[in-house]
Design brief:
The chain is of the alpha/beta class. The chain contains six helices and seven strands, in the order βαβαββαββαβαα.
């Protein structure tokens, strides 16, 4: 079965991330795109899992409440090391500090995906474990200069140059990228939204 790119959008993606749109296209889902602007501050006493699920739900609901009539899919990703949340770096210094913390260590990547439609909002959580090799300050600085880490949780992109830092991955590659396709497909199926399912058309 081919991709449904030529058809009208069946979904609104509440993200300007090209990688999330590419991942939806990978499973045959054509979508429109609307950015979601929400406060991403961590609430007092909020755990990392609750945090990413809340943000994904808030993004989806914000776009839906903005007048979007299609079902809205949103996701949020965070890197977790020893209980500390690592979001997007504020600047070069912050990026280098994050990468040096992750260097030679094992961290978790949590990605929540949420779908909001006329029935409400439902979310799923993907958890992956990533092991980084030892990084030098020189290569961390060069990586910042590439521009890639600037809008990435944990200051790296596994689908880009940052792949050379990853010694091993246990979990969901697409989840570490920012949209776990297994959990996404579960949400789509439950809502009756078509995606590639392995069936050959008659």
């Amino acid at each position: 079965m081919g991709r449904m790119d030529s058809s009208a959008p069946v979904l609104c993606l509440a993200s300007l991330s090209p990688r999330r749109r590419e991942l939806l296209a990978q499973i045959g889902v054509n979508c429109s795109v609307v950015g979601a602007d929400i406060d991403e501050s961590v609430l007092a006493e909020e755990g990392p899992r609750d945090y990413v699920i809340r943000l994904a739900q808030q993004k989806a609901l914000a776009v839906r409440r903005g007048g979007e009539t299609l079902p809205v899919l949103a996701a949020d990703t965070t890197v977790l090391l020893e209980g500390r949340i690592y979001g997007k770096p504020k600047d070069q210094q912050d990026s280098l500090a994050m990468l040096r913390q992750l260097s030679g260590r094992t961290h978790e990547v949590l990605t929540a995906v949420a779908l909001a439609d006329s029935q409400g909002v439902v979310a799923r959580l993907s958890q992956s474990t990533v092991v980084f090799r030892k990084l030098t300050l020189t290569e961390c600085a060069a990586y910042w200069d590439s521009g890639e880490p600037r809008d990435k949780a944990g200051s790296y992109a596994i689908q880009g140059l940052g792949a050379v830092f990853v010694e091993s991955l246990s979990g969901s590659y697409s989840g570490v990228m920012g949209l776990p396709l297994f959990e996404t497909a579960e949400l789509l199926r439950a809502s009756g939204i078509a995606y590639w399912s392995g069936r050959v058309p008659p």
